[in-house]
Design brief:
Strand 2 and strand 3 form a beta hairpin. Helices cover 28% and strands 26% of the residues. The chain has one domain: YbaK protein. Strands 1, 2, 3, 4, 5, 6, 7 and 8 form an eight-stranded mixed beta sheet that branches. It contains five helices and eight strands, in the order H-E-H-E-E-H-E-H-E-E-E-H-E. It has 167 residues and is of the alpha/beta class.
Amino acid sequence: MNDIRKKVIDFLEKMNIPYDMIEHPAVYTIDEMDQLNINISNKENNEIVKNLFVRDDKKKNYYLIVLQKDKQANFKEIRKALDSRPLTFASEEDLQKYMGLTKGSVSPFGILNDADCKVEIVFDKDILSFERIGVHPNDNTATVWLSPKDLENIIKSHGNSISYINI
């Protein structure tokens, strides 16, 4: 196990959070993830989520938007819900700077690298309806399955802000 993934797994175990992990070939998009057709124990109420790292036009606020993999993100609507300035995708440099991640490995677990808690996590409210969601452990060669509530507890314990909006 690489050090990036180990940091996430160690954190999960330290917090006594139940999880399952599936290793797979590297994926960079939701389409590639779908082609793997992975799920834990063939349970019905699980969902892979996609993660979009965005910023406002003044580079003052950074958000990680977590939504169902098949939903489209309307930045104008998200902007209204967050009461923010116009939103755009953040650069790969900002992704590395604030979350210690590279393109293709974007994950809510990136907050573990966000020492200043600069990034706000924005969950689509529909995520709460799933028993477990699948996210990368900051490494795109595995997927960790955990409950949305447990992920919320991780984020809160780290000190990052969380918002729930309808997407």
